[in-house]
């Protein structure tokens, strides 16, 4: 019996104090970097053509990141105090937001890349809405679908079971993982892996084609660097989203043993908020600050 307990403890054991410190550090970096990136992007967007489909996707990505960042200070407070002081309903909302943010961000990344691929294969510099109002209507429609159709059912079914332990604990909703939830998770994991691998394959094909067409000194051409920027989006998905989903395959069968480790993997998904800071810095250091990082090419 003792040997069995020891085995269970070391399945993916991590000291709770170490875990809370790691989570505090990660979310602090996310909040500071994400907030700085959001502010910088707001200034850069004012100088950019917002009618392009690419920029519209980026603006919606900014909105998604900003909404999530508003919940991060509450996470940091909890990890520092080890005590949730904001009520169970708000805990449920804050806990759900990181999952919502992950999948909304993933959807906008995929949309942005598809737009770029269409621009490349159609040999267009950019794809635009006819008027700015059209981009506003399109964005409002997307968020209406998210907020009205997807968000209410998610919040209704998420966090219904009371977690074990102290009433002042938060984010302990792993007791809700049933067989149906496991199957749904496996489907989501398969879809994300398939989409990321497909996008990576297309991007590699495009880069190889560009290099062959340009032949020598391809690094001097704007079209080559535009494709590297598209590759950056895919790397964000690989670095931020894949570790969590790959670990989740194992986690679904070891929920009680690996909860804290899963929280760390989940926090890594939120590092995608730092893409705004990276975009802003790339745009800011370019001569004339023309924000060509968002070119639709």
Based on the model shown, name its key terms:
297 residues, mainly alpha, Rhopdopsin 7-helix transmembrane proteins, 11 helices, 71% helix, disordered N terminus, disordered C terminus, G-protein coupled receptor, GP183-like, transducer, oxysterol binding
How does the SSE layout of this entry go?
Layout (H helix, E strand, L loop, with lengths): L1 H8 L6 H30 L7 H17 L2 H10 L6 H34 L10 H26 L21 H36 L7 H19 L1 H10 L7 H11 L5 H10 L13
Helix pairs in contact: 2-3, 2-4, 2-10, 2-11, 3-5, 5-6, 5-7, 5-8, 7-8, 7-9, 9-10
Main location: membrane
Subcellular location: Membrane
Keywords: G-protein coupled receptor, Membrane, Receptor, Transducer, Transmembrane, Transmembrane helix
Structural write-up:
- This protein is an all-alpha fold.
- It has a single domain (11-294), classed as Rhodopsin 7-helix transmembrane proteins (Rhopdopsin 7-helix transmembrane proteins, Up-down Bundle), CATH 1.20.1070.10.
- The chain contains 11 helices and no strands.
- It has helices at residues 2-9, 16-45, 53-69, 72-81, 88-121, 132-157, 179-214, 222-240, 242-251, 259-269, 275-284.
- α2 (16-45) packs parallel to α10 (259-269).
- It is globular, with a radius of gyration of 21 Å.
- It starts with a helix and ends in a 13-residue tail after the last helix.
- The model is unreliable at 1-10 and 287-297 (pLDDT under 50).
